[in-house]
C-alpha cells in the first residue's frame, strides 16, 4: 500500500482488503478518465478521482474485455498552486513502473532536485512511443507528508531580512558564475561555506539549532525524492476528504526561496499552523510540469474542498474510516 495515502485523508487504509475496496470505488466513481498510448506502445487508462480541493488519487492500468479494471499502480497527489521554479527540467522514466521523475538544479538550493512528476501522463501523450524532451514553462512543486510539526518563527528586523535577501541573491550569482568556470567565484563560494559552517558550529554550542537555522531543504532517507524541509508558512487552509471525513492541512511553505504546497493529515501534524510560523517535516516531493497547451483536467474539487453544510461523509464505510 502507498505510505502517503494517509497524507490526503486515508489514514484508515491499513490492509490489502481496505486497498482493494478503495480501488474498486475509484473504478466506479472516478472524476476523469484518460486513455493514451504509453511509451511502450501499450493502450493505457488513467482514472483520476478528486477527494478534496487540489487532492486526489490516480489509478493506472487498463480495462479488460469483461469490464473489470487491471490495476498497475496508483498514487496520491497534491496539485501545487505556485510556480516554484522556471529552470530547465530533465525527465527520466522509472525502471519499475510507468512513472517519471523530474531533475532540475536550482541555484537557490545548490543541488540537483529530484521529484515525482504528478502529470506524467501528459508527458507520455506528448512523447508517444519515444522518450522526447518536452519544453516546460516551469514546475509547480508540492509535497505529501506523514510526519510534521509547527515551530515558532525567528524574530527578524526589516534590516536583517533585507541583508539575508541580498546575501542569497549574491550567492546565487556566484553559483551561476562558478558553473560557467569562474575560478574566483568557486574560491569565494568555498571560503564562504567554510566560514558559514564555522559560525554555525560556534553558535550551536550555546543556542538551539533551530534558532540558528531559519530554513532548510535537504534529501533524507534512501528515496531520491524524499526531503527534510523547514520553511516559513505563507498560507494555510483545511480541506476535508469527502470519502472519509478526515481533515487535511494544505500549507504553502517558503523554503530556501522555493515556494510549494504541502499536504499533511491533521492527525500527523503537531502544533497549530499559522502564517509566519514554520513547518518542519519530511515530504515526498511531487511536481507538475507546466507544458504549453495543457490538457484540461479537474484541478480542484468544485465545492472548494469542504463538504456542503449539513452533508456528512459518504455512509456505508465498511472499514471504520469514519471512527
Write the layout of secondary structure elements.
Blueprint lengths: L15 H14 L2 E6 L5 E10 L2 E9 L5 E10 L11 E4 L6 E7 L4 E7 L2 H8 L11 E13 L6 H22 L3 H21 L5 H4 L3 E4 L6 E15 L6 E9 L2 E8 L3 E2 L7 E12 L34
Parallel strand pairs: 7-14, 8-12, 8-13
Antiparallel strand pairs: 1-2, 2-3, 3-4, 5-6, 6-7, 8-14, 9-10, 10-11, 10-14, 11-12
Helix pairs in contact: 3-4
Q: Kindly, what is the distance between the CA atoms of the first and last residues, rounded to a whole number of angstroms?
A: 21 Å
- Kindly report the spatial arrangement of strands forming the biggest sheet: 8-12-11-10-14
Order of helices and strands: HEEEEEEEHEHHHEEEEEE
How many helices? The count is 5
- Number of domains in the coordinates? 2
Envelope shape: globular
Secondary-structure-based class equals alpha+beta
What would you report as the Rg, rounded to the nearest angstrom? 21 Å
Enumerate the spans where pLDDT stays under 50 for 5 or more consecutive residues: 129-133, 294-311, 313-323
Largest sheet: 5 strands, mixed, barrel
Number of strands: 14
Helical amount? 10-25%
> What percent strand?
35-45%
Query: How would you state the average pLDDT, rounded?
Result: 81
List its traits.
323 residues, 5 helices, alpha+beta, five-stranded mixed beta barrel, 14 strands, disordered C terminus, globular, four-stranded antiparallel sheet
